[in-house]
Amino acid sequence: MSMRGEQPNPVSPRLRAERPDLAPYAARESTSRGRVHDEPGSRFRGAFQRDRDRIVHSAAFRRLEYKTQVFVNHEGDMFRTRLTHSIEVAQIARTLARVLGLNEDLVESIALAHDLGHTPFGHAGQEALDACMREHGGFEHNLQSLRIVDVLEERYPRFPGLNLTFETREGILKHCDVRLAPTLGDLGRRFLEGTQPSLEAQLTNLADEIAYNSHDVDDGLRSGLLTIDDLMEVELFREPFQAARSEWPELPERRLIHEVVRRMIDLQATDLVEATARNLESAHPATLDTVRASTEPLVRPTEAGRARQGELKRFLRQRLYRHHRVHRMTSKAARVIRELFQAFVGDPRLLPDEARSRVRALEARDGASGRARAVADYIAGMTDRYAIAEHARVFDPVALS
Ligand code: MG
């Protein structure tokens, strides 16, 4: 678990090692807890850059393009998918990291990996798969993201997974059930001790919220499920909307909405940066280890900022995520997941060769739970459209197999 093998950049070895541009409490490659499997470094790239690159080249990353954020992928080409969401999170997180003197490469790799473990059909898919897996340890998308980068990606001759650094893996594991934490070694410890991950991990987590709070308003309006009138009851929308409209009274509505969404991101990001800069100034953690030992997150918005976001989240939950048209789609989606799971667990011969051999291997090791886990891995890896097509191939007597 050391970084001894990661060689200094031959062009600027001193700058690479010391990173004078980073704050003392930032994550550094020189103090990284390293990779599970030691490997030689890259001549030109740092360890966190390599993590990002491994994520970008993974199969799971490409599949994010066809996975639901809120709207199922085939409902329209204009809506966010998990892929564009992840890129927006990386954009916001990188900007904030640079302002705060944190490690941009690390926040980028965490952001691009944070949603890899999502099932098809968003939260409805996750809930359905979790219910299917109840007897076998459940299903949780955060843990699945980690499982993908640690185990499921098969891209290297010497080890399973992507062999990412501890710091990227720490950032991917946002939440973890305390009952499962003891099985995760060093990575699970903070959930038992109530301590914190790196500032980069804390920051990326909140950049995720800023991204979806803002883009779900945009997609909600575009879909017609939300109206500007509805949103006027929410302060985080109303204030930037009124300001933008008085500045640009003639602007067509679509352009006005873009301006409002831009201001919503800016308001939340500014609040987060300013509050965090104050927290860091008063706590002045000496190193990343001090950050990790703290029991409270240091990256956090103001109380007022948190309350504004809470109001918007409640609004989106009631008016968008639980809208009957979203619910009709998600209830169909949940049925697709449930029926595929039951069919495959009941008869693994229905599975394609590769998935079937994984079922055999995990079943030999862990019995019925192993069989269920391998089926869950297969289903979780599907895109929305693949799950729909696979459902037809398994259940529709007329569909071609
Ligand atoms: Mg996300």
Topology, element by element:
Blueprint: H1 13-18, H2 47-56, H3 59-63, H4 82-100, H5 104-113, H6 122-132, H7 141-152, H8 166-172, H9 189-193, H10 199-223, H11 228-231, H12 235-247, H13 253-283, H14 288-293, H15 303-321, H16 324-346, H17 353-380, H18 384-395
Helix pairs in contact: 2-5, 4-5, 4-10, 4-13, 5-8, 5-10, 6-16, 8-10, 10-13, 10-15, 12-13, 16-17, 16-18
The structure holds magnesium ion.
The site of magnesium ion (MG) has 5 residues, from helix 4.
Care to give the gist of this entry?
α5 packs across α8 (about 165-170), α5 packs across α10 and α10 (about 200-225) packs antiparallel against α13 (about 255-285). The protein has 18 helices and no strands.
